[in-house]
Design brief:
alpha/beta; 631 residues; 6-stranded mixed β-sheet; 23 helices; 4-stranded antiparallel β-sheet
């Protein structure tokens, strides 16, 4: 039997997806199954017609129906009336039922499915928004999108196949067996045993094929992931002229997929179909011999012979559809399992504070404690912007700390700079400040309150960050500016853009603030994206503003513009500046030099130069490289 059918956790998960539709689902599956059972009256009625035409009396059930109709209509019972009544039964089952069944079965099956697809997609989006940051360090967008798309698609098709095909067909076969049993048990029992044997063999074989499907699915996911990377990094591919190499690499992967599908999985399916069809034909021939023997020896009538053979043919004809439905479920098992694994990924620290009922992103001046969300807004929760890192120790691997006993205080409206070699822990400190991770030891407080006791979303809304690579969405300049605060007024937007020098370049764009910037802001230069990021951060009016390597990848002219923008901000709020270029931090109130996770030096620019320590060496190296003549 299919492994998927016995995995209770998977079944419970699937059941939960359709739980809200259980009434409609129960009624539609029940109605469809009833139609499958009613179909069995057609071969029964035909068999009784043959008996009537051959001069034999109909059986008790058919005789009762004919006599009842004769009494109702006031007509004598004869051959013509008997045939007419039985034809009426066939007409009701076939013609009258035809326009009704699609609405009771097909309409509701797909109505449930489409609603469930919407719900699954919404849950997947919610999952994306609540996963921890480190998940995206090891899973690229193409891999994630492919897993979600294939999982949702296979859930979409699985329900109509199970509810609309597999369950009703199994009910139909059970009905066939019961009807045959009432006619002649010596034919019914061999039918049931042979049917179970052929179907059981098919399902056992499918269980082995599923394992190959799972391996292939993971391989195909990697192929799709690299295709996504090609799209994302197409400029690099063309710059290094590696189109042929990348094409050959993907072509080889696709060829390996084809080989596995053709000579592994597809071959197994063909072998299975061959053996299954052979078994069905042998079983059908055996039932024919048994039914013929019972008719010749006078144990059953010719009408019953026709009924038994028709029912047996109908029953055996369901083996292939049931097997094919099971085959489709087997093929869908791996994407379903991968989607299920994705939905079971542990969420981030902030997940408990995220409510998707609140779709807005208003400015959150008040940040309540998590354990007291019922408290009314009060000025006592308004941040002043004092941040303290107290004896902070953290490592992505607990045995290898990245930060060791860090103690830093940022006073309100003070500008503190973090500098140091690559890998010294600067960006990790910012991740802890935004609570992407919690420290292994020590704490981070804002105005004396441990950030772990605060509502994470509300707390983060009082912070803003400008990254080295500013994330820009494919929309207008204005949409990107208002991303953190959609309700910002036009005057507030212009004020933030004036401070960040956005107004200097936006007037050169074809549609000004309504210019579409393209995916990832490709229509803007690096410096323009940085200034847009600064204005976006200012627009939320944060208590703490972080610049994370905001100028390290810019040319001198763009860097100067960003420094001027930053200079007009310093002193207006608590500011933390992470810088690789030391020219960016000359005017900081305090410079903290990190070295291999430890604080090496603390002081102003001039104080640190006089100490002639690590900061002096870094400054000397940068000054000498900048002073080198251009070749």
């Amino acid at each position: 039997m299919l492994q998927w059918l016995f995995q209770s956790k998977m079944i419970q998960r699937v059941r939960s997806y359709f739980r809200s539709h259980w009434r409609t689902s129960f009624l539609s599956i029940g109605a469809h199954s009833c139609f499958e059972i009613i179909d069995l009256l057609v071969p029964y009625a035909i068999g009784q017609i043959i008996n009537v035409l051959s001069g034999r009396s109909p059986d008790a059930a058919a005789g009762w129906l004919i006599n009842s109709m004769a009494a109702l209509l006031g007509l004598p019972v004869n051959q013509g009336l008997s045939v007419a009544v039985l034809m009426g039964v066939i007409f009701a089952i076939t013609v009258v039922r035809a326009p009704i069944e699609p609405w009771i079965s097909g309409w509701f099956h797909w109505l449930i499915t489409l609603n469930a697809r919407r719900d699954r997609q919404a849950e997947a989006i919610a999952k994306i928004l609540t996963l921890p940051i480190e998940f995206y360090d090891t899973n690229n967008p193409g891999r994630i999108a492919n897993r979600i798309a294939r999982g949702v698609e296979n859930y979409l098709w699985s329900y109509p196949e199970v509810a609309g095909q597999l369950i009703p067909k199994l009910v139909r076969v059970l009905g066939i067996f019961i009807v045959m049993l009432t006619i002649d048990w010596r034919v019914a029992l061999p039918f049931a045993l042979s049917f179970a044997a052929v179907l059981g063999y098919s399902l056992r074989s499918l269980g082995n094929i599923v394992e190959k499907e799972k391996k292939l699915d993971r391989y195909m996911e990697n192929t799709a992931s690299h295709t996504s990377e090609l799209v994302t990094n197409i400029k690099t591919v063309k710059a290094f002229a590696t189109e042929t190499r990348e094409y050959e690499r993907q072509r080889q992967r696709l060829s390996r997929e084809l080989f596995v599908v053709t000579y592994g999985i597809h071959t197994d399916y063909v072998v299975l179909a061959t053996r299954r069809n052979t078994g069905l034909q042998l079983a059908s021939f055996g039932i024919l011999a048994l039914a013929l023997y019972a008719t010749v020896t006078g144990q059953i009538s010719i009408g019953y012979f026709v009924t038994l053979m028709t029912l047996a043919s109908m029953g055996y004809s369901e083996v292939q559809p049931i097997s094919l439905q099971s085959e489709l479920l087997a093929r869908r098992f791996s994407p379903l399992q991968r989607f299920h694994e994705f939905m079971e990924e542990p969420v981030g620290l902030d997940a408990q504070d995220i409510s998707f009922e609140d779709t807005g992103a208003p400015k959150a001046a008040i940040v309540p404690f998590r354990d007291a969300p019922q408290l009314p807004p009060s000025p006592q929760y308004q941040f002043r912007g004092q941040v303290e890192f107290r004896d902070l120790t953290f490592g992505y691997d607990r045995d290898r700390p990245v930060l060791n006993h860090i103690n830093i205080t940022l006073n309100p409206r003070e500008t503190v700079a973090l500098v140091g070699r690559s890998g010294s822990g600067k960006s990790t400190l910012v991740k802890l400040l935004f609570r992407y991770f919690d420290p292994d030891r020590g704490s981070i407080t804002i105005d004396g309150k441990d950030i772990r006791a605060l509502d994470t979303r509300g707390y983060r809304r009082r912070l803003a960050i400008v990254h080295q690579e500013v994330d820009v969405f494919n929309g207008t300049v204005l949409d990107n500016l208002r991303y953190g605060r959609p309700d910002a007024s036009w005057e507030e937007v212009q004020q933030a853009c004036a401070i960040a020098r956005v107004d200097e370049f936006v007037r050169t764009l074809p549609d000004g603030y309504y210019t579409i910037v393209g995916e990832r802001g490709l229509r803007l230069s690096g410096g323009q994206r940085q200034r847009l990021g600064i204005a976006r951060a200012l627009l939320v009016d944060p208590d703490v503003l972080v610049f994370d390597e905001a100028t390290s990848s810019l040319d001198s002219e763009s860097e100067r513009a960003i420094q001027e923008a930053m200079g007009s901000i310093l002193g207006t709020r608590t500011t933390l500046v992470i810088a690789h270029r030391l020219s960016t931090v000359r005017d900081a109130d305090k410079i903290v030099v990190l070295d291999d996770g430890d604080i090496a030096e603390v002081g102003t620019h001039h104080q640190l130069l006089k100490q002639r320590g690590l900061y002096h060496r870094l400054h000397t190296l940068q000054s000498s490289s900048e002073a080198m003549p251009a070749l």
